[in-house]
Amino acid sequence: MALETAKRPAFEKPSRKASQVWKTLSDSLRPKTKSTDDIILQLQKCFLKELGPDQAQKLLKSADCSLFEEKAEFDDFGYKRILIEENEKFNLVLMCWPEGSATSIHDHTGSECIMKCLAGKIRETRYKWPVKKRQSLEKICEEDLKKNEVSGINDEEGLHLIENPSTAERAISLHLYYPPLSECLVFDEYTGKARRIRLKLS
């Protein structure tokens, strides 16, 4: 992963109002997706027609995203990000998790994030933003996502870490970021210290 350091930012809790994206999902949108291209096309329509990110979340919930599993590639030394689609509105990334792999604690630098588990199980641990220097991060909650389950986060809701908790099974997840995410801040759990990194995509 290519790293890019930056001066420590002023860690103020994001001021924008909490997104309504993560409201209860309905089954009203059930696209007849027959290929990965169909799913990408419908996502593009969601944003181009300004239907809003809530529709994109419903689409990922109801669509057969297992079609993306054939694009999975694994690296025994850590998780791998595979870019599926990118445009000015969003990027769609397939993440492949070998056993026991995990991200650093990170933010989303102003982007919304929707993630769907496609295979295995992924664990999300959320943390509060640090409010003082040299302060350990406070854990908010921990949740396991199983196959076809969907979750989402933005900066106002906190920071998070994603991992494959299994020591015997690989996992795959699909992540939608809007606006497109190309860099983020990663945090030390015990000091709260942050550095900026550019995300490496295959």
UniProtKB/TrEMBL annotation:
It is an enzyme of class 1 (oxidoreductase). Fe cation binds at H106, H108, H160. Gene3D superfamilies: Jelly Rolls. Its EC number is 1.13.11.20. Its cofactor is Fe cation; Ni(2+). It catalyses: L-cysteine + O2 = 3-sulfino-L-alanine + H(+). The keyword Repeat does not apply. SUPFAM superfamilies: RmlC-like cupins. There is a cross-link at C113-Y177 (3'-(S-cysteinyl)-tyrosine (Cys-Tyr)). Binds 1 Fe cation per subunit. One of its GO terms (biological process) is taurine biosynthetic process. Catalyzes the oxidation of cysteine to cysteine sulfinic acid with addition of molecular dioxygen. Belongs to the cysteine dioxygenase family. This is Cysteine dioxygenase.
